[in-house]
Design brief:
The structure is a homodimer. By secondary structure, chain A is mostly helical. The first copy, chain A, has eleven helices and no strands. The first copy, chain A, binds a DNA duplex through helix 3.
Chain lengths: 207, 207
DNA sequence: TTATTTATTAAACATTTGTTTAGTTTTAAA
DNA sequence: TTTAAAACTAAACAAATGTTTAATAAATAA
């Protein structure tokens, strides 16, 4: 790992848990074991470091859903199942960073970053829209509101993992319960979301 | 409005749009037309001002759903409809403040505030759980995962209004489109969510 | 009225902030 | 080996931060 990457990794960690303005460049430098000046040397400014963080994460993000559209082996609803599993997997494996992006989006600061961020978050939106649209066109799916159906899937997964406190309160769990990386919860969420979509999308429920 | 309230109102506005650490006490004082020292005079510290903001907002929040449980005039699904309308109404009328609370929840700072906040956000959760539970017990509703069904409703409404950029990208709208206080979108979201819940909850769909 | 508490002010305070400078070491090319 | 570019450091910089002080004005009580 290059020193540049070391800084980015520390920035991801600290921005994720304490927010952008809640993290000082000295915090980052200390965590990375690097002189403070190196941050401006490599990135120019704290804000540009943030941009680099976003770019860095985006570079690991493949568009997994584009090949799904023309997949002939899977039925329409199986494609939806696959998508749900992927979204849950991704959210559970990287919830803290997802929070960082959503926090940034809801702020009225750094507008140029917000476009890049929403691009990352919704990278796969068009293929998924197409899958639902195809299902409707071929008569397998009900004529639903495509965009809002998608919002439901993403929103359900996202909201459950908003924070441990929220998750505990919703599920009626004790304070110790930690939702992130909880395999049982992951399974439960998957089952619920798939069942919900089958019930809502499918015309013929006998499948 | 007392001077204390003036400060709180300015704090709500600025914390909502720029975040807690992104807002300085001088920003707040200037917006409220008040000397900087008055903030510490009235509230003790910036952090305690934040607590007062949360308390202030909570004091306006009535528990609208508790009386709904024992309402005999409405059917089970009509109660769900009512709840959805209420949640949408509330979210659209106060989206920015809701964002502030969710940002704070997802940060690993100020843990004592997070409990108060999740309490506010999920004030009505128990009555709503009861309504779904009753529907299942009387055989009108399918035996669904109650907590996650609730998460779906809240999550759908919440996610659509995460930010204008996200909403634009999901709906395929131009940059100018502003979702907040958009009556058409409000109606569309209500129809989608109610249709979804009827499809998922009701055993006998002929209603 | 006078006395006393409350409200308000401008200025100062001590830290912390992101960033830059000027110098040094390391690396790599000529 | 010499030279020049790149990497790195400790220190300084200016600005902004939350908070406190000391003095004054206003409101209230005796």
């Amino acid at each position: 790992m290059t020193k540049r990457e070391t800084i980015i990794v520390s920035a991801i960690k600290l921005f994720s848990s304490k927010g952008f303005e809640g993290t000082s460049v000295r915090d980052i430098a200390a965590d990375a074991g690097v002189n403070v000046a190196m941050i401006n040397y490599y990135f120019g400014s704290k804000e540009k470091l943030f941009e680099s963080v976003v770019e860095y994460k985006a570079s690991f993000l493949r568009g997994v859903f584009s090949e799904l559209v023309n997949n002939k082996k899977l039925s329409h609803i199986e494609k939806i199942d696959f998508m749900i599993d992927q979204l849950i997997e991704r959210k559970f494996s990287d919830a803290k960073f997802s929070h960082l992006l959503h926090r940034e989006l809801s702020l009225e600061l750094r507008p140029q970053l917000r476009n890049a961020i929403s691009g990352i978050l919704l990278k796969n939106i068009d293929p998924v829209k197409t899958i639902i649209k195809d299902g409707i066109k071929t008569g397998v799916f009900q004529p639903v509101d495509i965009e809002l159906t998608l919002t439901t899937v993403i929103g359900t997964i996202h909201y459950l993992l908003t924070s441990d406190t929220i998750c505990q309160k919703i599920l009626g769990k004790k304070e110790g319960f930690s939702p992130f990386q909880n395999k049982q919860l992951k399974k439960r969420l998957g089952e619920h979301t798939k069942k919900l979509m089958r019930s809502y999308l499918l015309k013929n429920k006998k499948h």
